[in-house]
Design a protein that fits this description.
By secondary structure, this protein is of the alpha/beta class. 30% of the residues lie in helices and 30% in strands. It has three helices and six strands. A hairpin with a 2-residue loop joins strand 3 and strand 4. The protein is globular. It starts with a strand and ends with a strand. The relative contact order is 0.33.
Length: 96
């Protein structure tokens, strides 16, 4: 699964929604400010980027669901708190 991380001040949600539309046919999961989506499952978000264990659990769920892509909104707090330290990102997008 290719993982895209989106960080920066503004535009994270917009970019992850655009990625979701681009890769919809190939399978994509999204973790973001509004909700977390894997297939037909939608979970209201409690944080832009959940804790490290929850991030890993959602990535596992995405892989099991056959997602070829994952788009993660990564907040500055998440970076500072190492919530995505063990995520192998293939692409990083910085908005400003």
């Amino acid at each position: 699964m290719k993982v895209v991380g989106v960080t920066g001040t503004n535009g994270k949600t917009t970019i992850t929604y655009l990625l979701e539309q681009i890769f919809k046919e190939e399978g994509i999961g999204v973790l973001g400010t509004i909700n977390y989506r894997v297939g037909d499952r939608v979970v209201p978000a409690t944080q832009t980027t959940p804790g490290a264990l929850e991030v890993q659990a959602f990535l596992r769920e995405m892989a099991r669901a056959g997602c070829h892509y994952a788009a993660l909104e990564v907040s500055s707090h998440a970076l500072d708190q190492c919530r995505v330290a063990d995520v192998d990102f293939q692409v990083a997008i910085f908005t400003n």
